[in-house]
Amino acid sequence: MHIIQSLCMLKHSVLEPGSSVPFCKARGVSFYEFMSERPEMISWFNKHMRTASYLHFDLKVLKVYEGFEEVKELMDIGGGDGSSLAKIVSMYPHIHGINFDIPSVIAQAPNYQGVKHVSGDMRDSIPKTQSIILKLILRNWDNKHCEKILRNCWEALPEAGKVIVVEYFVLPEELKNTPETMQILADDIFMMTLFDGGKERTIAEMDKLAKCAGFTETTFFPVSHGTYVIEFLKKRQ
Question: What is the pLDDT of residues 133-149, one digit of tens each?
């Protein structure tokens, strides 16, 4: 219901350029502020993310991407209840997993074997770690905040470290009238509804964010139907 009311406010984004985000206009606070004050909504959000993770991450990414084999320590930034990281660790038991999210989320996170929960705010600083995964994070923020988050990642990593970005809906460079493109555009509108500056991006836009944050090399791994794994390397190998 909260999100439906936000969608009704979409017209103001067109009629009143520069007006508040539709969700803020409908609820009076940002999506993250609204959710942090309602434990039941955090539970709903985590359940939704687990379902999306199973459909896109478990059934697609983990069957194609092999980059976790070389990882010894992996911090999941904005990892929610830690279920996705736990799945990675179960498949690659040599990985030491660290689930990093805000205190209100970590407070509800269950215990998983091989996963340590750490609370904090990725916009302020990120603890030192060997490798980082950002799953469905950058789409929630405008370019300025993305560059800040990625710069914090850069500072947390060793010289040979990398950020593994997972996005389910990467915009094609050329838009075509296909079901896949329509799905990505629909999700793009959804991001605009919930978050200030939230949007889906193209491969070129993702690479530019990485370079602005200090990363030297970007490698793209197409998975299926707009889903990509993207590696940002701190030092060119």
Answer: 999 999 999 999 999 99
